[in-house]
Write a structure and sequence with these properties.
Blueprint lengths: L1 E5 L2 E6 L2 E6 L4 E4 L9 E3 L4 H9 L3 H5 L5 E5 L2 E5 L1
Parallel strand pairs: 4-6, 5-7
Antiparallel strand pairs: 1-2, 2-3, 3-4, 6-7
């Protein structure tokens, strides 16, 4: 995992996606995630979580970063907690 530090805080690139760490919210947030868009909340290790992994296998790379993510995958905006 390539890590980069910016003036605004911690930032990292995972499989071509840029994530910023929000200390207040305690989430790694995909730079493409839009808070204003409708999103799904996914409970870690719940049924929907495993369906998500089956649908988007690449998410396993992002989950190595943290189990608390705000991410955009294709047209889906997801909050994984």
């Amino acid at each position: 995992m390539e890590e980069v530090y910016s003036e605004s805080g911690n930032m990292t690139i995972v499989s071509g996606k840029v994530f910023f760490y929000d200390e207040e919210e305690d989430y790694w947030i995909d730079k493409d995630f839009d808070e204003d868009m409708p999103h799904k909340e996914i409970v870690s290790f719940g049924e929907e979580y495993f369906r998500l992994i089956a649908e988007y296998p690449q998410i396993l790379e992002y989950l190595k970063l943290s189990d608390r993510l705000k991410i955009k995958l294709e047209d889906d905006y997801l909050i994984i907690d």
